[in-house]
Amino acid sequence: MRIGILGAGQLGRMLAQAGIPLGHSFNFYDTQLTTTVGGLGEIFVGSFDDRATLKAFAAGCDVVTYEFENVPCESARFIESLTPIFPSPRALEVAQDRLHEKQFLQDLGIAVPRFRGVTSESELREACEVLGLPCIAKTRRFGYDGKGQARIEHEEDIAVAWRNLKGVPLIVEGFVPFSRELSVIATRDKGDDLCVYPLSCNLHIDGILHRSELPAPDISPALKATAHALISRVMTELDYIGTLAIELFEVRGEILANEMAPRVHNSGHATIDCMKSSQFENHVRAITGMPLGCVEPQSRAVMFNVIGSVPPLETIGSLPNARIHMYGKEPRPGRKLGHITLLNPSKAEEDMVDTLTRGR
Ligand code: AMP
């Protein structure tokens, strides 16, 4: 099949790298030409409201998917009128607005941090009183990697947060004193089959994922069951086809859902090297109607993102259990340039790569 991907970043690159060996070919659509998917398929360049270019892109595809959740819903619906698109635009709609997303999760009976929607500084003040400080204010739309957020510790921070977040509609959340951050990733196919990857344990620095361990250590059977039940509830409700990630907070042995990504996810990159079928391969399998592949881990894996600048890859590459994945991007501060997965690493190997990948 020819698969169209809205977005041409590293997630699109890894989807194509997984899908090409399965016999598929790829078209990409993005607002500018990128090197990240170079050589992996045809790239269409246009804005997301450029209907003529969207139409030309979709016309050549048997199925379309997306690699980032800020694709405008109208564009996804326009594509849907021409070519099947998975996951359905409804998943995009829910995930694009943090307030709707939290409400949606809560309505499904899933535990989430306490939250309130606000549209003015006085409502923000009121929400802080109700939720108690500290709390976190987030823009409802277009936030990612910790952008569009402000932590409010003291009353004086309220006006500053409102100004810094530019007076747009916000969601305010009670600060969760989590012991760790986890994520659960699953893929659901057209026949209602669902496979859930082992949970990963994630460490963020400055709001950007730094390290992800898979499987997460010390996951009790009860916690695993809760995570499986919640992702399966979300997927069933959305009639979801493809790979979905839900980020979680573990707090006092319970889990709260923070946010969902209707796509393959950074915390699942280790699945490329430690699973028979990665999150990328299973996404491609699901949207093209192939049966899902095995998600039993073949080894413990720890993934580190390469952000901003390139670490000494020859040193890291000398570790026999290191798998290096660079995305072909020019270094720029804060930019995700690649990732490194260590299979069954020793503590010393892990510490070395941890240190070498901290220079952003
Ligand atoms: P988000 O963009 O919602 O994924 O938030 C980015 C990061 O901010 C998360 O990975 C957490 O480390 C932190 N964070 C977000 N929301 C909360 C919260 N309600 N309580 C504590 N930390 C949070």
Description of the molecule:
By secondary structure, this protein is α+β, with helices and mostly antiparallel strands. It folds into three domains: 2-85, Rossmann fold; 114-174, Dna Ligase, domain 1 (2-Layer Sandwich), CATH 3.30.1490.20; 180-356, D-amino Acid Aminotransferase, Chain A, domain 1 (2-Layer Sandwich), CATH 3.30.470. It has twelve helices and 17 strands. It has helices at residues 10-19, 51-59, 73-80, 89-96, 98-107, 121-131, 157-164, 221-238, 271-274, 279-288, 313-317, 347-356, and strands at 2-6, 25-30, 42-45, 63-66, 115-118, 135-139, 149-152, 170-174, 180-188, 194-196, 200-205, 208-214, 242-251, 254-261, 301-307, 322-326, 336-343. Helix 1 links the parallel strand 1 and strand 2. The radius of gyration is 20 Å and the shape is globular. The mean pLDDT is 96. The protein binds adenosine monophosphate. Adenosine monophosphate binds at residues 113, 136, 143, 146, 173, 175-176, 181, 204, 207, 247, 258-259.
